[in-house]
Amino acid sequence: MDFNLTKSQKEIKKAAWEFAKGEFDKDLIIELSKKQEFPKKILKKAGELGFIGIHFPEAYDGGGMGLFENLIVGETFCTRDSTLGTALMLSGYGAECIFLFGDEPLKEKFLPPVIEGRVISTGAFLEPGLGYEIRKIHTTAVKNNGQWIISGKKTFVPFGETAGYYVVLCETDTNADPKADGMSMILVEAGTKGLSAKDMGDKLGGRMIPFADVAFEEVRVPESNLIGKPGKGYSQAQKFFDRNRIQIAGLALGTAQGAFDRALDYVKQREQFGKKLAQFQVTRHKIADMATKIAAARFTAYHAAWQFDNGEASSRQAAMAKMIATNSAMAVSDEAIQLLGGYGYMTEYEVEHFYRDAKQAEIFQGTPSALRDVIADEIIGKLK
Asked: Is this prediction's pTM over 0.85?
């Protein structure tokens, strides 16, 4: 298989870079990151140019392309700036579930606003004290007179206070055995009575994606807001996580590349003892190691995206892609800080926030240990 970009993909990458170069203002990014604010104006521009919905069907105003093209855009944006790039590309977090599992009325109503950059969507999957063990969720949805009545609490919800709608994983059959067979996904629009969100406060990285605790107190939504089939919510969530892990791998790949580019530029200019830092063997070897980690991450991420686009979806490959890419982002951004010395610790030189964003990518949508479980489960299988 050949992962050299086609002419069309090269044009997409170039367009994404030109957009980021023109819109990703460093001073604005630093200011918004400190305030944990999301740049809605930039999102709208990105949507209008087709970057947000590049992999959604044309029938809903998307670009009609694949996960591979989505990954290319995310990688390119994050190479320019990991904080803003990640925020833009995850603005359609909840819409991905509508795209994958929703019926036509839901897609027609809720996909275009996200694709066009007018609305942020999110997913509410995790609950307090459970980590990523979503098989034990307590949030319930009871059917009554053509409505779902949702009660429960979710935590670590991206864009929890600013999202236009939420995809909520609920328990719709409390008698199901196993418990996972009684779960469903339901869409809840922001502003619905009984829904409340509270910002969780400052965090290390990804500071344009504020997380929130979200409470549902007898929230009533139409029965038609069910996403997919009842009782299939858990399996749908797993399929969504696989897909999203590849997208995050692309963001982490761009994060690693962005940190590397800044470190490389620095060592080629900085002099010590009458020589450029890039002339010292120890520096050269560090640069070589960093470039090798990025190359390995790029191949794995591209391969995973190619598999999904060609109907060969694999939980193992998605988990491997995310783990390798985020490990590379952590290692490369850490080394970039070391190469810049004291400057690497300063906000103005940017590599410090690439490091912080790499850490969020490493944790979000499955910690390394959780990913190892996914990989091991698929390789070893069930033992008698």
From this structure: yes
